[in-house]
Every structure is written in C-alpha cells, then in structure tokens.
C-alpha cells in the first residue's frame, strides 16, 4: 500500500494534518525504504480502534515506553497520524487518567509541541488545540515488574555512585555501588610524557597505556526529548542527538533534583560517549552528561557543561595538547580510566572547562574547533 492511500484512509481532520505536514517536509515520509514501510504500517494502525482508543491506551503505553518516535528514530508522518488520532482521546482525559499512561502522555506532549506539527495544527482551527498537561505534578509510576534483588541493589547503587554529580555510570560502578576517586599518580611522568602518550592513544592505549584524558570520547549532544524516569524520582531519561546515523542515544541522568526539566529541554551539552552502557532502574543508558558541580558541593548547584556557540550534534570535543589523539572505542571498566582522570576536571576562573594534570598542574582546556566549553556560572567546579 502506498503512503498516499494509507493517509487517505484516515479520518478527518487527522488526514488533512498528515497531508499538510508531509507536503511541507518530504523527509517525514521516510528517509529509507524500510522506514517508509514502517511509517505506512503505523499510519494504517493509527486509523483503527485496535491501536487508538481509550481502552487500548495501556497497550500503547507499553509500546511507547522505550520510544521517542513511533516508527523510526526521527519525527515522521506516522507520529503526526498517531498524534491526530490520539488528540480527542487525550484532550478528554483527567490528570489521574493520563498519569496512568505516562509514556503515552510524554509522547503526545512531545509530538504536539514539534514546531512543524504545531504550525500546521494551528492552521486547522480548533481541531488540534494544544492540550495542556500537568506533567510536573505527575506521580511516580508504579513499577510493572519487580526486579531481582541483585538488579535492584545494583540499580540503587548506581544512583548513589557519584559523590559529585549523580549521572549514569559505567557498569563496574553498578556492582561496587560507589564511585572511587583515585589519585592520578599514574600521570607523574609530567607534561612531556603526557604529550608523548597522548599522541599514541589510538594504537596500544586500550591495552598498554596509562589513563589519559584523550582516551575519553567527548562529543557535542543535543537533547531532543526528556522525561522523568518511570521508576526513579531522581532520574531523567533523555534522547540525545550526538550526530549518529543510528539516531539519538538514550541517556539516564540523575539531575531531577538539581536542574528543572524546562532548563534541560532542547539544550546542547557535552556527552561522554564511550562508557560501557549501564542499566539505570530498568532503562539502559548509552552515554553520560558532563556536568559541573559547585565548589561548595551539590547543595551549591549543578550545571550542564556547554559547548561553544554554533556547535552541532556530534562535534568532537577534545583536550588541548591532545588534538591528534583518538579516543578509545569503549573505556575498559577494569582500568578505571575515567575515574582516574576525573579528579583533574575543573572550571577555571574564566569558567572554561579543563583538565589539570595533577603531576605538573598543566592546564588542558576542554574545547571544540569552535572554542572552549564552559560552565554558565561556576568557577572552581568539579566535572563529572
């Protein structure tokens, strides 16, 4: 079945909305043939009561728990069709009702606020008015499946693993339940040795070299979606675009109590991309958000490290004097590379992010080709 014939089977005004949006942005029909097939399939489903009805919201909620978009990893006409079909249902729900389907609620709110969707929806008069959802006061979702004691212990340990910034952590920290900060005594060779080692991080660093900051894969990321973790009050679940063809990465970070969700939405940040993926209360996290913690501790505040103006998702972030080095594909958890280097991360008087070699106090600023990365307000902060 063709895209057009599937859309024409939709009822009005959803049909008109999908046609208007897809005519304005052709990429919404699908970037590849497999995407197009999945998009058509979901458009067909969106026009049936078997998928979209008040009685079926729980089933749809289970489908959407791990999804940002319904058919692919980017906005498509399928999302517009599903949004249009859901609109009269969600608009009629009381808070207690939409709180019971948090994934549906999060998804619906995300799609209805997409600029291209909002613009065309408003042009259709009162058919798709913005539905105001009280997401901030949503209660904690009930856990559907009780984890084993071993997994529950590991998950709780992960939340408390960082004494500086409560973000996601490599798998070994899940087992040990805390982040160990080692003294970077292994760097005692001095700045000469740093440069020498940094230049050969690509080849034998993974197995033979001492921990160096250039081994850490830092990239510019862009938060394209964020919601609270369904089973952990202190965690956010973010979809972060880091310029990969495979689409955004799911990232879990413990920032709920420190940065309001409004200040997280649509933000550009620095992501640590080569940590081993870690399960955080049932959601796998594939990167870590680099944050600055006030010199006074977490009580003094936490901020996202910001890349320079004009940065794009996927831009390489590196340490000055280590430009030629290539990060490891994945940090070896047993070598504690990040934990060894992290105590030297700080912000300077200029608020610029940097790594200071503890052996010789040489400063290596954290930067991209467009400039240095900064903390908005913190001087002398710790980074993690």
Automatic annotation (TrEMBL):
SUPFAM superfamilies: GST C-terminal domain-like, Nucleic acid-binding proteins. It holds the Pfam family tRNA_bind. InterPro entries: Arc1-like_N (IPR053836), Glutathione-S-Trfase_C-like (IPR010987), Glutathione-S-Trfase_C_sf (IPR036282), NA-bd_OB-fold (IPR012340), tRNA-bd_dom (IPR002547), Tyrosine-tRNA_ligase_regulator (IPR051270). Signal peptide: none annotated. GO terms for molecular function: tRNA binding. Residues 140-149 have a biased composition (Basic and acidic residues). It comes from the Eukaryota. GO terms for biological process: translation. It is found in: Cytoplasm. This is Nucleic acid-binding protein.
């Amino acid at each position: 079945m063709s895209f057009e014939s599937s859309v024409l089977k939709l009822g009005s005004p959803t049909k008109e909305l999908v046609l208007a949006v897809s005519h304005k942005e052709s990429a919404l029909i699908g970037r590849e043939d497999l995407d197009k097939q999945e998009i058509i399939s979901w458009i067909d489903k969106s026009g049936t009561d078997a998928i979209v009805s008040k009685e079926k919201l729980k089933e749809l909620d289970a489908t959407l728990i791990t999804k940002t978009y319904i058919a692919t990893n980017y906005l498509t006409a399928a999302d517009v069709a599903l949004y249009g079909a859901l609109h009269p249902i969600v608009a009629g729900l009381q808070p207690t009702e939409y709180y019971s389907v948090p994934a549906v609620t999060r998804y619906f709110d995300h799609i209805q606020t997409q600029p291209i969707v909002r613009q065309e929806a408003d042009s259709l008069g009162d058919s798709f008015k913005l539905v105001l959802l009280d997401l901030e006061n949503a209660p904690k979702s009930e856990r559907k499946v009780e984890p084993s004691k071993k997994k529950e212990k590991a998950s709780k340990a992960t939340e408390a693993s960082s004494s500086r910034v409560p973000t996601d952590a490599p798998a070994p920290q899940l087992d040990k339940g805390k982040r160990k900060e080692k003294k970077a005594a292994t760097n005692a060779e001095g700045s000469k040795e740093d440069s020498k080692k940094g230049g050969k991080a690509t080849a034998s660093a993974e197995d033979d070299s001492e921990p160096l900051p250039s081994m850490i894969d830092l990239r510019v990321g862009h938060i394209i979606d964020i919601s609270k973790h369904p089973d952990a009050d202190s965690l956010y679940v973010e979809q972060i675009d880091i310029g990969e063809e495979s689409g955004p990465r799911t990232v879990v970070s413990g920032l709920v109590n420190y940065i309001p969700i409004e200040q997280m939405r649509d933000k550009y940040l620095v992501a640590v991309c080569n940590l081993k993926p870690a399960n955080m209360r049932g959601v796998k996290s594939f990167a870590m958000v680099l944050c600055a913690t006030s010199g006074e501790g977490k009580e003094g505040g936490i901020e996202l490290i910001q890349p320079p103006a004009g940065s794009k998702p996927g831009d390489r972030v590196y340490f000055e004097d280590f430009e030629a080095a290539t990060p490891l594909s994945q940090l070896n958890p047993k070598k504690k590379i990040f934990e060894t280097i992290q105590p030297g991360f700080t912000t300077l008087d200029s608020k610029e992010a940097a790594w200071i070699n503890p052996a010789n106090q040489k400063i290596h600023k954290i930067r991209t080709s467009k400039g240095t990365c900064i903390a908005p307000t913190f001087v002398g902060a710790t980074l993690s």
